[in-house]
Specification:
This protein is mostly helical. It has two helices and no strands. The protein has a domain of 37 residues. It is elongated and about 85 Å long.
Length: 66
């Protein structure tokens, strides 16, 4: 005879999966909320790039390849 409704084991697995996913999403949101942008000391390694093209370096490279 065919069972009507959901099996008890299937319901337990679905509820456990739902609780696990809810905890996972909650912890990820909490971690993203507390995350800092940059670690201390990184700013000293960040510097602006010089937009001027140094043609002297290119000329020396051309001379080396001849």
């Amino acid at each position: 005879m065919k069972k009507k409704g959901w099996d008890r084991d299937v319901v337990i697995v679905l509820i456990t999966t739902l609780v696990t996913l809810a905890c996972w999403v909650g912890f990820e949101v909490y971690r993203a909320y507390l995350k800092t942008d940059l670690p201390q000391g990184v700013e000293k390694h960040l510097k602006t790039l010089d937009p001027q093209l140094k043609t002297g370096v290119l000329d020396r490279l051309r001379q080396m390849n001849r």
